[in-house]
């Protein structure tokens, strides 16, 4: 049930149409078809700057970490389908190697995936809401090697679609973005385009609560940063409601302008088309 990356060889001679001069890397998503994503090549881990935002604790194979992993594996040993080692390590890193907290959070995620079944979502199941254009996974990573989910908030109209359908679309996009993380990377970035946001139509607190839960319970620390672009003044009353729900993770959020997004996070070739 881990969200692994299974990387295949680059297609000879192919290139990224959104990022001229870069090659496509074929990425196999374990629950769907092979997809293509822009990659910066084998030097990614050493050539990109350290990303801002909240990252998980590093795995160093220190004795305390190895002991925590052994204890967590023991706790799941009687389960019919225990999570794999990579998933256990990720949750230990997220919980600062506290086995009790890692187990609790990991079981919560496994229960959600068993009941909600996001891994069974097909493009056809979310086609209607996807066609609204409210969100997509950008073809290229940012300067820090992170796949980006772009959310056009003005196109998310509260109540237009059943809440479970919106949750399914969100999980599908997060899984898709994670499957596109290049070698050496670990996280994704969420970009909320707040231009045109109105409180009456777009302030969906039920969906926002799910997104917070998903980002920090079901996909802990996979979202390294949340960028709020060109937030209008009418957004801030909604933010005052959402911010306390995020607790310490509110520090992941950065308010910035389109020009700052262009200069700090993307190149002219890799910038999402919404911000060109």
TrEMBL record:
Domain CRAL-TRIO: 123-276
A Pfam family assignment: CRAL_TRIO
UniProt cross-references to InterPro entries, sorted A to Z: CRAL-TRIO_dom, CRAL-TRIO_dom_sf, CRAL/TRIO_N_dom_sf
Gene3D superfamilies per UniProt: CRAL-TRIO lipid binding domain (3.40.525.10)
Classification via CDD domains: SEC14
Top-level lineage group: Eukaryota
Protein name (database record): CRAL-TRIO domain-containing protein
Record organism: Pleodorina starrii
Gene: PLEST011399
């Amino acid at each position: 049930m881990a969200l692994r990356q299974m990387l295949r060889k680059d297609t000879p001679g192919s290139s990224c149409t959104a990022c001229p001069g870069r090659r496509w890397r074929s990425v196999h998503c374990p629950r769907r078809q092979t997809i293509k994503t822009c990659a910066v090549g084998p030097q990614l881990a050493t050539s990109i700057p350290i990303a801002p935002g909240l990252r998980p604790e590093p795995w160093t194979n220190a004795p305390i970490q190895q002991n925590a992993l052994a204890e967590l594996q023991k706790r799941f040993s009687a389960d019919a389908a225990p999570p794999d080692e990579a998933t256990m390590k990720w949750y230990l890193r997220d919980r600062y190697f506290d086995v009790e907290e890692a187990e609790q959070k990991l079981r919560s995620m496994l229960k959600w995936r068993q009941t909600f079944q996001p891994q069974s979502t097909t493009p056809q199941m979310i086609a209607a809401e996807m066609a609204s254009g409210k969100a997509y996974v950008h073809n290229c990573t940012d300067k820090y090697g992170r796949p980006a989910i772009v959310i056009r908030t003005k196109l998310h109209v509260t109540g237009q679609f059943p809440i479970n359908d919106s949750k399914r679309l969100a999980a599908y996009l997060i899984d898709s973005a994670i499957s596109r993380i290049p070698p050496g990377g670990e996280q994704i970035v969420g970009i909320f385009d707040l231009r045109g946001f109105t409180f009456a139509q777009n302030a969906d607190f039920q969906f926002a609560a799910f997104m917070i839960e998903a980002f920090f319970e079901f996909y802990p620390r996979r979202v390294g940063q949340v960028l709020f672009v060109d937030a209008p003044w009418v957004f801030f009353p909604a933010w005052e409601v959402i911010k306390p729900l995020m607790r310490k993770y509110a520090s992941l959020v950065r308010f910035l302008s389109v020009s700052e997004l262009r200069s700090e996070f993307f190149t002219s070739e890799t910038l999402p088309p919404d911000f060109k």
